[in-house]
Amino acid sequence: PTPSTAEIREKFLQFFESKGHLRLPSHSTLSPDPSTLFTVAGMQPFKPQFLGAAARFPGYEGEHKRVTTAQKSLRVTDIENVGRTRRHLSLFEMLGNFSFGDYFKREAITWAWELLTAPQYFALDKTKLHVTIYKDDQEAFELWTQEVGLPEERILRFDADENFWPADAPLKGPNGPCGPCSEIYYDRGPDFGSDSWEDYAQTRESARFLEIWNLVFPQYDRQEPRPDGTPVLADLPFKNIDTGMGLERIASILQDVPDFYGTDTFRPIIERVAELSGQAYQGETSVSHRVIAEHLRSVSMCLADGVTLSNTGRGYVVRKVLRRASRHAYLLGFREPVLHSLVALVVAAMGEAYPELKQNEAQVQGAIKAEEARFLATLESGTQRLDAMLGKLEKGQTLNGAEAFMMSDTYGFPLDLTREIAEEYGVSVDEAGFDKALEEQQERARAASRYGKSELFGEVQDVLENVVREHGATEFVGYEELVTE
Ligand code: ATP
Ligand code: MG
Ligand code: MG
Ligand code: MG
Questions:
Q1: How many domains does the chain have?
Q2: 172 with 63, same domain?
Q3: 234 and 134, same structural domain?
Q4: Whose CA is nearest to atom 2 of ligand 1?
Q5: Atom 22 in ligand 1: which residue has the minimum CA distance?
Q6: SS3 letters for the chain?
Q7: CATH number for the domain harbouring residue 131
């Protein structure tokens, strides 16, 4: 029998409970620390513990150096990948097990293998599992080959740009806990791609080999670089474990469907979109069905977590995601708000695991409906205007920045949306020109106000900025709103 996504989540958490881990609830999608707007990984709420704080958690007695969670995670950088790559969602659940100075690589690696392959757990075919390690991590290499018995040819060694987390390279990532990592991939087979595992060393991109689980070994604290630019990786007080497995990715494998959208999480939403629009879902080419189902999930979750739609910060990110979904609904022929009517399906899929969705269902629906109505007021004329401008350009040409800015200013089309539509014409957008037009408008607004930034106002502004950092931004009615509303 095919396990449901809920069952897979539960099995993961139970497995680590059986290994002495405390199960903690997910943190909100609003990031617990200032390095990102949204929570991007399961480890984020535990940075203090990695940095040496006592492993005590409100509401739980005693110390817990082993913790397991399913963390709802949102990656702004992956939003535009939705509908384009097979493996990216904007909101996903990261299943994780954490050790705060307790067990280290040996247990992390052998337990991961046990969970993935044991018949009573995920029962994956061992021959389909492949791993990458950080190039110098001989310890991980030996554990994979000697303890687990993985053949050497299924292990690739990568630089810090791939196998050091969180970072593009140890020199660049955000300050804080970090370390080398080892990633586990599942070979979905030749139907998905004709490339080989050796090819992956060069391509770093594969439809066939799907990254499912990242085992991170945080043992460093990345600090401010020295004045001459030399990076500073200080030892943490102890060695830690931080892992992250994509629930929706493992679900697509265990449910034996080609991608996320075939899993029990997304299918009911997609089917409803097909039914309401009268347009059958045809898999990978039905980008609009997919974007709607996916974006609705992240928008609903963020709104349930207390984000308010606005023109700055988190509220703006969520607004962009919702407007992108809105445009895809328009492409399917909807001319009235419809996304709000799908919220119940999101709640049905995720409300059990995330009760905040159930509790805030009415508000979430209301906020989505109001935003849909607001955007629909300019979507049609905006689309016509943009189509006309793009229609005049040849493939490979550039839409000028002032026009892209006008789309945002007059029609409420976020730059990302204009860029996406332009790409459909093979046209790029002059983003420097957009920024310039935006700056000029802000300059005009400043000149129009009687007072410049006086010294006193500067201080007040600093205080306000601190408040915003700590408590999140409040609604800022900016340039876009003045014109569109
Ligand atoms: P990718 O290389 O595919 O973008 P990643 O290396 O950025 O993934 P990690 O930061 O290592 O991902 O996160 C741990 C796990 O979370 C991944 O192995 C994957 O299973 C899952 N994951 C990461 N990003 C996404 C996403 N956008 N959608 C769904 N699952 C994701
Ligand atoms: Mg990524
Ligand atoms: Mg990766
Ligand atoms: Mg990874």
A1: 2
A2: yes
A3: yes
A4: 211
A5: 246
A6: CCCCHHHHHHHHHHHHHHCCCEECCCCCCECCCCCCCECCCCCHHHHHHHCCCCCCCCCCCCCCCEEEEEEEEECHHHHHHECCECCCCCEEEEEEEEEECCCCHHHHHHHHHHHHHCCCCCCCCHHHEEEEEECCCHHHHHHHHHHHCCCHHHEEEECHHHHEECCCCCCCCCCEEEEEEEEEEEECCCCCCCCCHHHHHHHCCCCCEEEEEEEECCCEEEECCCCCCCCEEEECCCCEEEEEEEHHHHHHHHCCCCCHHHCCCCHHHHHHHHHHHCCCCCHHHCHHHHHHHHHHHHHHHHHHCCCCCCCCHHHHHHHHHHHHHHHHHHHCCCCCCCHHHHHHHHHHHHCCCCHHHHHCHHHHHHHHHHHHHHHHHHHHHHHHHHHHHHHCCCCCCEECHHHHHHHHHHHCCCHHHHHHHHHHCCCEECHHHHHHHHHHHHHHHHHHCCCCCCHHHHHHHHHHHHHHHHHCCCCCCCHHHHHHC
A7: 3.30.930.10
- Residue 468: per-residue pLDDT: 52
- The pTM for the full model equals 0.90
- Ligand 2 midpoint to CA 151 (Å): 26
What is residue 169's predicted lDDT score, i.e. its pLDDT? 62
Q: Does ligand 1 come within 6 angstroms of the Cβ of 72?
A: no
- Any atom of ligand 1 within 6 Å of the Cβ of 182: no
Q: Is the CB of 210 under 6 A from ligand 1?
A: no
249 CB within 6 A, ligand 1? yes
| Closest C-alpha to ligand 1, atom 4 | 88
Q: Tell me: do 446 and 363 sit in the same domain.
A: yes
Say which ligand is closest to the CA of 43: 1
Q: Along the chain (485 residues), what's the average pLDDT of each consecutive run of 10 residues?
A: 96 98 98 94 96 96 98 95 91 98 98 98 98 96 98 96 78 83 98 96 94 96 88 91 98 97 97 98 96 98 98 96 98 98 97 98 98 97 97 97 96 96 96 96 83 48 52 44 33
Question: Do 398 and 460 belong to one domain?
Answer: yes
